[in-house]
Structures are given as structure tokens and as C-alpha cells.
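#data-curation
PF: Archiving a pair of folding outputs for the training set. Convention for this channel: one message per protein, sequence first, C-alpha cells after, nothing in between. First:
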Amino acid sequence: MLAAPRMPYALARDGLLPRPLAAIHERYRTPHVAIIAHAILCALLAVTGTFASLAVLVVLLTLLVYLACCLATIQLQRRVVRPDGGVPFRVWGGPITPFLAWAIIIWLMSSPTRKEFLSLGAMMVVATVVFFMMRALRPDAAPAATQM
């Protein structure tokens, strides 16, 4: 509940979600609007579904984030990115490790039901629509990867 709102906060900070989600509480220095919005969304989802289906949906979403990280790791190694001008980005096992992790993630994602995948797809469609709407409203808020 306290870590997950960091993603909408970061997206709002970068202009890819509505700006109010990027608000930081003056006293506590937390993304309070993102936390409240996340809590409301979680409550709505909890009321509309079973715990088991929500747990599977959260795991699928988390696995998608991990999958994206694996793919990003491959790109970072391929481009020889140097954090802070230091040593190039390296992963134990070289390019094999992200591919192995990718395969394991795909294997883990093979067990959910069709209904659970349809729910995931619906969430991804909504997220994609919101992303493109925000991008159209704020053309200067392109993701960092496209600004290179």
C-alpha cells in the first residue's frame, strides 16, 4: 500500500498521469495524493472481485514489471550504459541472466485463467489509453527513453 503508489507518483511527476498525483505532502514528504488515489482504487477493486482473483491480478502486473526490467537490462548491457560515468552496466551471467529470468517469468505467467488474462488486458488497455491521452495533452512529457 505504501510502495505501489510510487509508480503513479513517478508517472505523474513525468507528466504521463494527471499532475495532482505528483503532489508531495509538505510535512511528511510523501506522495499523499497518489497514496489516497491508490487506496481508493484498491478499495474499489476489493469490493468488485474476490481476494484470489485480485491476488492473481497483482502478481501478473508485478511479473509484467519484472519482464520489462529484464528487457531493459538487456538493452542497458547492449548499449554499454555507464551509470554516473563509471563502469558499464553489467549483470552476473551477462546476457544469459535476463533471458533466463524472462523465460521464468513467462513460465510463471502461463497458469492464470482466461478471465484473469482478460482482466489484465483490460487494465493494460485502460493504462494505454490514459498514457496516450496524457501524452497528447502534454507533448513535452515524452518518456525519458524517447528523449535520448
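PF: Second:
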Amino acid sequence: MKNYLTEGFFGVADHAEFMSGLKHSVDHLKARAGIYAGDQLFTFHRNLSFLDDEKFMAAFTRHAVTPSEKAILWRQSVVAWGARNALRLEGDLVECACYKGTTARIVCDYLDLAGRNDRCYYLYDLFEHDPSLPHHAMPEHGSELFDWVKARFADCPNVFVTKGSVPEVLSELAPKRIAFLHLDLNNADAEVGALEVLFERMVPGAVLILDDYGWLGYRAQKLAEDAWFEKRGYRVLELPTGQGLLTK
């Protein structure tokens, strides 16, 4: 039975003491099997099925290189699952706020999207940040990030990387039929705006992943989205990963 342990926990007052306590907990398990530690998750006696998916793990290992990227393996597996579901449907894949493109690159490799002519992947981001923006900055934001991400997908002619503010940029380029949608905008107004444009384009059976839905720091998004979906007869499932899951 495989384990997956990282030191990627965020918002901890004393990280060293926290990790020491976590090690103490692991050492006192009756059976040290099926353990996952990282990204605010500590679980044990789990199957951790994604660790047995060799193709997914190869893609993840190839592209998740920073400590924070490595810590969110379980989140990445949820996105990969949703994207894989798209292959049995008609429509394209969309990610709003792709940042460095790590998640999308893992999905592309996992699903061999570069070799498919029946599927496109649309990625959106501002790629830069200034203090006037409502969401927080990320370490790699800057004037060179857009070109860097485009180069990352140079071998994928069916991946379209678009720079601009969501939802406004969606009027310039967006698919008419969507089989998978991933939102990670860190901003309630932007995510609701994206839903206003894109949700009706999701085909029946399409999966929506809301990356920030379960996190207290982004509670405003959850509240806004709950109200939006309630009007349409839907309810989002909060996952232990902090993501929200919904099937159209």
C-alpha cells in the first residue's frame, strides 16, 4: 500500500512544530498505510487510487515541480478525473485562471490531448497582477508569464492560451459546447461572471470543478455560487480537497 506525504501545509503558525506533530501522529498509527499528507489534508487507511494510475502519476511527476504543486496531488487527480469524463461527451475543455498551466499540462499529457483533433482546451488568465485587482497575486505573475505558458503548450495545437480578464475575455474566444469546466479565479464576481457565460454551454454530464469552493479564505465565492446554483436547481458537493464538484 502506497503513501504520499509532503510538507505542503499552508497557514500554519509554526511549520516545524506542526510537521513534528504530524510525524508523531503517523508514528502512532496501527497500520501506516494509505496515508496522504499535504494541502491541508491528513488522511490514513485510504486506497489513494490515483497513486496506482501510472499514466496520471507520470504526467504529475513530470510537471508538478514546486513544493506547492507537489502538495496538491489529490486536487490534481480530481481535475484529471473530470477532464477524463469529458472524453465520453461532445465539447471542449475550459480552465479559467490557468496561472502557470501546470494543471492543464498534466491533463494534456494524461489524456494525450495533443494528438486529438476532436477536442480543444481553452485556458484563460491575466498572467500579471497589480494592487488594483480584487484577487491576490501569485509568485510567478509578471510580464513574461503569458509567453512562457504559451511556450509550455507549443506542442499542443489544440490548446488555446488567452490573456485577459474573465468574464470579459470570454466574448473574444470561448467554445460553444463545454465538456469540462475548471474555475480557479480566487474572486467571487469573476467566477459568477464566468458561470453566467459558460454554464449554459456545458453539455449534459459535463463536470464543473470549483477549486476554491471549500476554502474558508474564499468563502465569498462559495456563498455567491451557492445562491447562483440554487436558483437553477443545483447544489455543489464540497470535497475534502477544498474543491467543489458539480455535474451538469
